[in-house]
Amino acid sequence: MGLATLAVMNEQQRSPIRLLIVDDDPLVRSGLRTMLGGTAELEIVGEATNGAEVPAAVDKHRPDIVLMDIRMPEVDGLVAAQQLRRRADPPEVIMLTTMDTDENVLRALRAGASGFLLKHTPPAEIVDAILRVSAGEPILSPTVTRQLINHVADDAAPSRQRKALDLLGQLSEREREVAMAIGEGKTNAEIASELFMSVPTVKAHITRLLAKLDLNNRVQIALLAHDANSA
Q1: What is the CATH number of the domain that holds 74?
Q2: How far apart are CA 49 and CA 29, in angstroms?
Q3: What global pTM score does this model have?
Q4: Residue limits of the Response regulatory domain (predicted)?
């Protein structure tokens, strides 16, 4: 296990991270339970077979993180994630898929997911992702985020740009600088160095940004910055 993972683990609360698995394929659910069930830092508290079951499962099991498939019958993972994020104290969501298209990633992040994993991701990397998301760190690296926001566009870009500019216009100059730096995929340390502030100050700005912009995580700040810069 790498030093980065150990550092994240040291920040975790002592009780295990409560995990809810959501997938319509019983073999996938069984496989995830087998792979993750022996991890001391995790506790699998329940399962659901589609997005329609997620609200009741969350009420019953109170998970910290929901590991959820995107494509499911009745209610898919994207809709379920959006519904969860409307709650006052929602669990974090990590989306699972067999396809890694830019469109899927973008839709998952806009739905409020804190991360995106392929189903064939090695177990150790899934555990690492769960630990990072639990610690408040989106699992997309700055490089992946930068590639995503620079290369993905859709027909709704003009309307999103107007909305993004309006939202960013509500921020102070310093807050906008932090938001745009996040949009460039920079880490907290890189932002602190560039803007001549401490890392704790950067984190405080990010907390205020999330509250002011009504967003769930820093990846959504990056997407907002991307929308504001769309041609």
Answers
A1: 3.40.50.2300
A2: 9
A3: 0.66
A4: 18-134
